[in-house]
């Protein structure tokens, strides 16, 4: 991650790239390259809050968490973020750990019927129960103490329909309480444009599709989705999601016309294209820049220009 920060600071920061986000499974000691290990062991504190694995993030040793890495990234003039999954770790619930700053315990708030269909790490949090908001408050306090500037919250939308509005609202409320400016980005994406007003009130960014891989077919499919969301002026993240596709759309890689670009090519192409990066919605909000899931530079976002 430090090498990524060095590269971004030297080559892409002058063009507006600002956020570096550690992607999923940073609390798992032995993550798979693709997919997720069922019921994986996760590193957490005594309150059931996930913490980075010291064997993968050496500066996190001795309870330091992501604070040293955030300091390093901040010293580069960049901002730091993390990926989280909706809910509370199942292992914390099984152990009925206490919730930090609360008289309640993890088993008091877990909704064992609310689970992610593609990852077995978490149970949902029933925020209507006493202690539900307390847990979200506790994790955001931890993230703020690390110096987190950006939270990518995953499993916040269910397919093909459904939502987790109560947990979106709880996470938003926790961020407001802490008083630290933290960008909240929601995944894995929703097509329900009727939720635009709610989402705009509780998050700064949200995806409008599932995973966007470096394939031209994924790029082309986005345009229909843009048309669905474009009539909603209350959507402050409109430009952020739109430019995700453009950030990938450089020359094909290794002669394969079906593939989009890798980070080093982006840095020479779309990542430095002043005309592209200068796109504005007319209100002074520049188009955001997103570079996601590309060989170690897990996500870089500039959502506010």
Main attributes of the structure:
305 residues; alpha/beta; TIM Barrel; 11 helices; 33% helix; globular; disordered C terminus
Structure write-up:
- By secondary structure, this protein is of the alpha/beta class.
- It has one domain: TIM Barrel.
- The chain contains eleven helices and ten strands.
- Strands 1-2-6-7-8 form a five-stranded parallel sheet. Strands 3-5-4 form a three-stranded antiparallel sheet.
- α7 links the parallel β7 and β8.
- α5 packs across α6 and α8 packs antiparallel against α9.
- The protein is globular and about 50 Å long.
Can you count the helices? 11
The level-1 CATH class: Alpha Beta
Q: Supply the CATH architecture.
A: Alpha-Beta Barrel
Neighbour order of strands in the largest sheet: 1-2-6-7-8
Distance separating the two termini: 23 Å
Name the CATH superfamily assignment: Aldolase class I
User: Biggest sheet: strands, sense, closure?
Assistant: 5 strands, parallel
Count of β-strands: 10
Order of helices and strands: HEHEEHHEEHEHEHEHHHHEE
Class computed from helices, strands and strand pairing: alpha/beta
What percent of residues adopt helix (DSSP H or I)? 25-40%
Strand content is: 15-25%
């Amino acid at each position: 991650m430090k090498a990524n920060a060095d590269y971004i600071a030297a080559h892409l920061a002058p063009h507006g790239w600002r956020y570096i986000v550690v992607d999923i499974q940073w609390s798992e000691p032995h993550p798979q390259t693709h997919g997720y290990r069922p019921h994986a062991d996760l590193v957490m504190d005594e309150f059931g809050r996930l913490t980075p694995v010291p064997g993968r993030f050496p500066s996190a040793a001795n309870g330091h968490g992501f604070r040293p890495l955030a300091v390093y990234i901040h010293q580069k003039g960049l901002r730091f973020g993390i990926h989280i999954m909706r809910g509370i770790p199942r292992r914390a619930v099984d152990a009925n750990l206490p919730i930090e700053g609360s008289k309640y315990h993890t088993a008091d708030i877990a909704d064992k019927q609310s689970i992610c269909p593609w990852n077995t790490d978490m149970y949902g949090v029933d925020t209507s129960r006493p202690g539900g908001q307390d847990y979200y408050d506790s994790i955001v306090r931890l993230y703020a103490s690390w110096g987190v500037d950006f939270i990518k919250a995953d499993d916040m939308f269910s397919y093909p329909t459904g939502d987790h509005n109560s947990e979106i609202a709880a996470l938003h409320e926790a961020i407001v309480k802490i008083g630290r400016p933290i960008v909240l980005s929601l995944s894995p994406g929703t097509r329900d444009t009727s939720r635009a007003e709610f989402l705009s009130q509780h998050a700064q960014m949200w995806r409008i599709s599932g995973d966007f891989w470096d394939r031209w077919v994924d790029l082309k499919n986005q345009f229909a989705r843009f048309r669905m969301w474009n009539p909603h002026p209350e959507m402050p993240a409109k430009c952020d999601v739109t430019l995700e596709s453009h950030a990938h759309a450089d020359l094909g890689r290794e002669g394969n016309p079906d593939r989009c670009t890798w980070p080093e090519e982006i840095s020479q192409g779309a990542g430095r294209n002043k005309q592209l990066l200068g796109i504005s919605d007319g209100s002074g909000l520049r188009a955001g820049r997103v570079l996601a899931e590309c060989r170690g530079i897990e996500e870089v976002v500039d959502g506010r220009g």
